[in-house]
Amino acid sequence: MYHVVLGVDEDEAHARQCAQEIADLPGEGSEKHVTIIHSFTDNPSGASATQIASVREAGDLFDEAGIEYAVEESSGDPADAIMELAADIDADLIVVGGRKRSPAGKALFGSVTQTVILNAGRPVMVTGVAKDA
To answer: Would the pTM count as exceeding 0.85?
Structure first.
């Protein structure tokens, strides 16, 4: 069994692309297990991660591909939440969506993806979004 942690924000296109890349990994869907994590930085309405459209989008794709998945949620720093979950479940891979940002933007504002890549201590796959998405 190959265990993947998928970090999902509110971007449905990124979630769909990440989920598709996981589905396209070698092996049958039954050989993969995914834990989707969404970290709330602000949640005044008290929503759960399963109510987030991007999380549902990824879950729908996993259902179609026959991939077992679970949904986790946290609050606070998304990069820390992704890395802590991956460590807790001893994930084989972390998958996150990347964004096109200028070098100055990366240096000034940081990035969840960049933090995960540099600090995860396990393989990280970064996906983009297809131009037609």
So the answer is: yes
